[in-house]
From TrEMBL:
GO molecular function: alanine-glyoxylate transaminase activity; L-serine-pyruvate transaminase activity; O-phospho-L-serine:2-oxoglutarate aminotransferase activity
Catalyzed reactions per annotation: O-phospho-L-serine + 2-oxoglutarate = 3-phosphooxypyruvate + L-glutamate; 4-(phosphooxy)-L-threonine + 2-oxoglutarate = (R)-3-hydroxy-2-oxo-4-phosphooxybutanoate + L-glutamate
Protein's job: Catalyzes the reversible conversion of 3-phosphohydroxypyruvate to phosphoserine and of 3-hydroxy-2-oxo-4-phosphonooxybutanoate to phosphohydroxythreonine.
GO biological process: glycine biosynthetic process, by transamination of glyoxylate; L-serine biosynthetic process; pyridoxine biosynthetic process
Region (Disordered): 1-25
Protein name in UniProt: phosphoserine transaminase
Keywords: Amino-acid biosynthesis, Aminotransferase, Cytoplasm, Pyridoxal phosphate, Pyridoxine biosynthesis, Serine biosynthesis, Transferase
Cofactor annotation: pyridoxal 5'-phosphate
Species: uncultured Acidimicrobiales bacterium
Native organism taxonomy: Bacteria, Bacillati, Actinomycetota, Acidimicrobiia, Acidimicrobiales
């Protein structure tokens, strides 16, 4: 046991088979790691511009098209730096003059702040709502891009991706960092759906992936033609050129690519996005149902329709110290159930991406009950 946590042992029959419930980095499947080890002698430590790596990128691009049922003309683009890095890419290569932002948590707020500080762009149109809720986008003829967040990882709030205006009246840019691979989405409702691999795709971070519509590709070309100065590493045009060659502009993490590809193909083999989304919903329904019946736990998000199917946030009664609970869980091998640090609530936050077994989620609820009882 950790010396910083109470000396409480969770019975073996209440312990999940795998105790990783982090919102990112998330659980990496053992089978994926075994496949990486087997491929390592001819894959790791090789050039990312040669066939062993380029074939993995090609499989990723094709698999993403299949998973998300992308219409003809969409392209799957990769770049180094993660989804937060893609915010810089977007403000250079996708927002022409002014954007609208829905701000309802740390990550949606962060993108809003970055755009507001961009000297070459007009002040954004910002629509806010309190943590635990989400606002609605509103058509605005003065903006050329709408920035939405499919799942706000910090608060456990999800929203349906819907175009606020006709496609020709503004690009829809969707931060899908914790949603992609675990939530349903209609590709007709977005122009760019971007995310990173360390959450639903069971890999490491350091990479961004963007699913780009023909309208988004045209916007990239239009902005490039204006002569706007764009650093090469932030140029979506450069990333697109490289993606068409099944590579990235600069060297990617080869293990990250491989693990992501394995996870993607595992999801496809099991039934695709519908299977993955249903599996995640099963897990969060276990958590929300347990919390609603509990005498010390309550779902943080009051609106059932806005409750995330991939990241559940559960408030604990003020008489129970959530930090003590998470310390005991961690000492027993159940990790990363702490709330988002800036939210500052007496809360548990549990991610249940496709890699997480629903049976383990049910065991987790029993483990929490045991810990709370022992602490009382």
């Amino acid at each position: 046991m950790s010396s910083s946590s109470p000396d409480i042992t969770i019975p073996a029959d209440l312990r999940p088979s795998d105790g990783r419930f982090g919102s990112g980095p998330s659980k990496v499947r053992a089978d994926a790691m075994a496949a990486l080890v087997a491929a390592a002698p001819t894959y790791l430590g090789t050039s990312h511009r040669q066939s062993p790596v380029k074939s993995v990128v090609g499989r990723l691009r094709a698999g993403m098209g299949e998973l998300f049922a992308l219409p003809e003309g969409f392209e799957v683009v990769f770049g180094n730096g993660g989804a937060a890095y893609f915010w810089d890419v977007a403000l250079f290569s996708l927002i022409e003059r002014r954007s609208q932002h829905l701000s309802f948590g740390n990550f949606s707020e962060s993108f809003t702040t970055m755009v507001a500080n961009a000297a070459h762009l007009d002040s954004p149109d910002v629509i806010e709502s309190p943590a635990g809720t989400h606002p609605e986008a509103k058509p605005n003829p003065d903006v050329d891009a709408y920035a939405l967040t499919h799942n706000e990882t910090s608060t456990g709030v999800a929203m349906e991706v819907l175009r606020p205006a006709p496609a020709e009246e503004g690009l829809v840019l969707v931060d899908a960092t914790s949603a992609a691979g675990g939530m349903r989405v209609d590709p007709g409702q977005f122009d760019v759906y971007y995310f990173s691999p360390q959450k639903g795709f069971g890999s490491d971070g350091g990479l961004w992936i963007a699913l780009c519509s023909p309208a988004a590709l045209a916007r990239v070309d239009k902005i490039k033609a204006t002569g706007r100065w764009i650093p090469e590493s932030l140029s979506l045009a450069t990333a697109i050129e490289n993606a068409r060659l099944n590579q990235t502009y600069n060297t990617p993490g080869l293990a990250t690519l491989f693990l992501m590809c394995d996870q993607l193909e595992w999801i496809l083999a099991n039934g695709g996005l519908e299977w993955a989304a249903s599996r995640c919903e099963t897990s969060t329904n276990i958590l929300y149902g347990w919390a609603e019946k509990s005498d010390f736990a309550t779902p943080f998000v009051a609106d059932h329709a806005a409750r995330s199917p991939v990241v559940a946030t559960i408030d604990l009664d003020d008489s129970i110290d959530a930090k003590a609970v998470t310390k005991v869980l961690r000492a027993n091998g159940i990790v990363d159930t702490e709330p988002y640090r800036r939210l500052g609530r007496n809360q548990l936050r549990v991610a249940v991406y496709p890699s997480v077994e629903p049976d383990d989620v049910a065991l987790l609820t029993g483990a929490i009950d045991h810990v709370v009882s022992a602490l009382s």
